[in-house]
Design goal:
This is UDP-N-acetylmuramyl-tripeptide synthetase. By secondary structure, this protein is of the alpha/beta class. It contains 15 helices and 20 strands. It is 32% helix and 19% strand. Strand 7 and strand 8 form a beta hairpin.
Length: 487
């Protein structure tokens, strides 16, 4: 691709005279070690490493043009200075791969909680009806039936545009994170359907406050195609606010047509009745528990109807939906206790998980959780408060340290425990709880979901599920009554 074409939509290219240089660009790279001859290298100021430091290495590897933000002179290749390298990368990636989202039906789901489950539900509904789907999200990416590792909830702009262009699937379904939006990872992606699930305290170490967090989430809806639809959860206060904003902008909300306004008239864990204003009603029954999952299912249900999937087929698919790895994933203790592994990592998500255990008749609720190091600290006390209120026993343990020293994070656990136990080693915390849980008790292990551990613990396991399964093999079928102090 010619350089002038590649840079056609790049914002505020300072060296505009370079746009007419007759240079053929064969690829785009942001990592100097991946540069090939005739690539354009984009230097991005990262959070830990500044890509401008690797410009010389990129040129030595064969980069024929460099794009960056700094005022650099005397490079031996053309240098295009831009106001924002991340935005420029996204704009170039979209151009390089031919704006591939225009030729797909693209569904974007944003919100704090429920994104992953809703994407999986939609994918399952569509594939049950013979439609093919690519998926981009927290657990994994799937393109043309091939599973790819997921590094971030939303892939970087270059990888995302590449994978969309490679996709032969009819639908593209993606979780869209606030980081993905603020870092322009989805810039240039045009959406047919945008869904908003809810908003809760999260990532306030990155966004300065809830207003900024909400504003970033709301920006997704600016990328709807001209006839695109917005599906909003009005049961969430932030959702109501978003609906008002979108209406004022003239963006079409599905609720603007009476037969599209879905209302949940009966809501309880596992089964619910939903109705439309047109007096239609349908009962949704799920294999996975939790009122929050009924809300997720309702969003997926309505979206599938708008796509054109017959109602009876949508209901059938939801009834067969097997769930998502690490999202309220239930395992049966040999002694009859119930173990739940869930990704919950906000106060509201804690409430949904623990309250579901209560509503399902748990004798006692044990809760094992921690906090990710160097991440949003404002939500931690709220998380502990919810756990203390609903669970009988809460045990604080380590989550990902993220370069925070072990001793510092351990001290944080003790400071925030509020009457709970602290067992720093995550695998031992799970072991202790499973040894004390009896038939009828529920053990909720939250925070990691299906993710692998980032650091080694005492037991030879790599995830919460693997730890639970390992311990099940070692726990005697007979359990002693009564709760003993954990240590």
């Amino acid at each position: 691709m010619k350089l002038n074409i590649l840079l056609e939509h790049v914002d505020k290219a300072v060296n505009s005279q370079l746009l007419d240089i007759d240079v053929d660009i064969e690829g785009i790279a942001t990592n100097s070690s991946l540069v090939r001859p005739n690539d354009i290298f984009v230097a991005i100021p990262g959070f830990r490493v500044d890509g401008h430091q690797f410009i010389d290495a990129a040129i030595q590897a064969g980069a024929s043009v460099v794009v960056g933000e700094k005022d650099l002179k005397d490079l031996i290749v053309p240098y295009v200075r831009v106001s924002n390298s991340r935005l420029a990368l996204a704009q170039m990636a979209c151009q390089f791969y031919g704006n591939p989202s225009r030729n797909k039906i693209v569904i974007g789901i944003t919100g704090t909680n429920g994104k992953t489950t809703t994407t999986y539900m939609l994918k399952y509904i569509l594939e049950t009806c013979g439609r093919s789907c690519s998926l981009f999200g927290t657990v994994q990416n799937v393109v043309n039936g091939q599973t790819l590792p997921s590094v971030n909830t939303t892939p970087d702009a270059l990888e995302l545009q590449k994978q969309i262009s490679l996709s032969e699937d009819e639908f593209i379904i993606m979780e869209v994170s606030s980081h993905g939006l603020s870092q322009y990872r989805v810039e240039g992606v045009e959406f047919d359907y945008c869904l908003f699930t809810n908003l809760d305290k999260e990532h306030l170490d990155y966004h300065k406050d809830m207003e900024a967090y909400f504003s970033v989430k709301a920006s997704l809806f600016d990328q709807l195609k001209p006839n695109g639809l917005a599906i909003i959860n009005h049961m969430d206060s932030w959702g109501k606010r978003l609906a008002d904003i979108l209406t004022s902008k003239g963006i079409f909300l599905v609720g603007d047509q009476s037969y599209h306004d879905l209302q949940i008239i009966h809501l309880k864990s596992g089964i619910s009745t939903v109705s439309f204003k047109g007096n239609q009603s349908v009962e949704l029954s799920l294999n996975i528990l939790g009122k929050h999952n009924i809300l997720n299912a309702s969003m997926a249900f309505l979206t599938a109807l708008l796509i054109g999937i017959p109602q009876q087929k949508v209901v059938y698919a939801l009834e067969k939906f097997p769930g998502v790895p690490g999202r309220f994933e239930m395992l049966q203790h040999p002694n009859g206790a119930t173990v739940v592994i869930d990704y919950a990592h906000t106060a509201d998500a804690f409430y949904q998980c623990l309250q579901t255990a209560r509503e399902e008749g748990a004798n006692r609720v044990f809760h094992v959780f921690g906090f990710r190091g160097d991440r949003d600290k404002e939500k931690r006390r709220d998380m502990v408060s919810v756990s203390k209120e609903i669970s009988d026993v809460h045990i604080l343990t380590l989550d990902d340290l993220n370069d925070v020293p072990y001793e510092e994070m351990e001290q944080t656990l003790y400071e925030l425990s509020d009457g709970g136990y602290v067992i720093s080693d995550r695998t031992i915390a799970i072991k202790e709880v499973l040894e004390h849980a009896h038939k009828g008790d529920w053990v909720c292990i939250t925070g990691k979901g299906a993710e692998d551990y980032q650091q080694k613990f005492r037991l030879p396991t790599a995830s919460d599920k693997e730890t639970v399964q390992f311990l099940f093999q070692q726990i005697d079928q007979e359990t002693n009554g009564g709760f003993e102090p954990l240590h």
